[in-house]
Automatic annotation (TrEMBL):
Source taxonomy: Bacteria, Pseudomonadati, Pseudomonadota, Gammaproteobacteria, Aeromonadales
Protein name: Probable DNA endonuclease SmrA
Residues covered by the Smr domain: 105-185
GO molecular function: DNA endonuclease activity; hydrolase activity
Gene name for this UniProt entry: smrA
Annotated source species: Anaerobiospirillum thomasii
Signal peptide (residue range): none
C-alpha cells in the first residue's frame, strides 16, 4: 500500500471515530419506561374477562336462590312437570310409584345454597350412572319462613335442568308431597345402544 493510501485510510478511520464520538456525546441514555407489551395487554384482557365471567357466574348463582325468580308453592301442593313431547302416562306412573328410584337424596336441614349445589351434583351424578328414576326429599316446609321455601326452589331448579325429563310429587309411601320423583333423560350410552338395536331391525 502506498503512503497516500495509508494516509487516506488513517483519515477515514479518524473521521469515523470522531463521528461516532460526536454521535455518542449527543445521545442521552435511554431510560426504560414501563411499557405494556402485547403479552401484558393480553394478560390484562384475560384477567378482565375472567373477572367479568366470575361476576356473571356469581350473579347466576345468586339468581338460583333469589325469590324474585321462584313461584312459591304451598306445603301440600302436588308438584308435576313434563317436558314437551313427554307422554302423560309417565306422570301417572310417577304419581302411582310404578317407577323404582335408583338413588335418592335428603335435603332436610340444608341452606338454599347447599341444597342447590347438592341437587345439581346429584342429578349430574345420576345421569353419569345412567339412572332413569331418582328421588329428592325436600320436605313440606311447614315451619319454614316462607312456608315450603325449599320445596318451591327444588320445583324451580328441576325445571331448569336439561337432564330432567319429568317429575311428580311422590306417592304417600315414598314421602308424598314432601318428596319428588324424577325421570331423567336417557344417557348417551343408552341412546347409542337403542339406535344400534333399532338399526338391526
Amino acid at each position: 500500500m502506498s503512503d497516500f493510501e495509508n494516509l487516506l485510510k488513517e483519515q477515514i478511520e479518524s473521521e469515523d471515530t470522531e463521528s461516532f464520538e460526536k454521535v455518542a456525546t449527543d445521545v442521552k441514555k435511554i431510560v426504560q419506561d414501563k411499557i405494556a407489551t402485547k403479552s401484558a395487554l393480553m394478560d390484562k384482557e384475560l384477567a378482565k374477562i375472567r373477572q367479568d365471567s366470575a361476576s356473571t357466574d356469581k350473579k347466576q348463582e345468586t339468581d338460583h336462590v333469589s325469590s324474585s325468580f321462584v313461584t312459591m308453592v304451598d306445603p301440600n301442593d302436588v308438584l308435576s312437570y313434563k317436558t314437551p313431547g313427554t307422554q302423560p302416562l309417565m306422570l301417572r306412573k310417577l304419581k302411582n310409584g310404578e317407577y323404582r328410584e335408583a338413588d335418592f337424596i335428603d335435603l332436610h336441614g340444608k341452606t338454599l345454597e347447599q341444597a342447590y349445589d347438592l341437587t345439581r351434583h346429584f342429578i349430574a351424578h345420576a345421569r353419569e350412572q345412567e339412572f332413569r328414576c331418582v328421588l329428592i326429599i325436600h320436605g313440606k316446609g311447614m315451619n319454614q319462613r316462607p312456608k315450603a321455601q325449599l320445596k318451591s326452589y327444588v320445583n324451580h331448579w328441576l325445571k331448569q335442568m336439561k337432564d330432567v325429563l319429568a317429575f311428580h310429587s311422590a306417592p304417600d309411601f315414598k314421602g308424598g308431597t314432601g318428596a319428588v320423583m324424577i325421570i331423567l333423560k336417557k344417557g348417551d350410552k343408552s341412546s347409542a345402544i337403542n339406535r344400534e338395536e333399532h338399526a338391526r331391525r
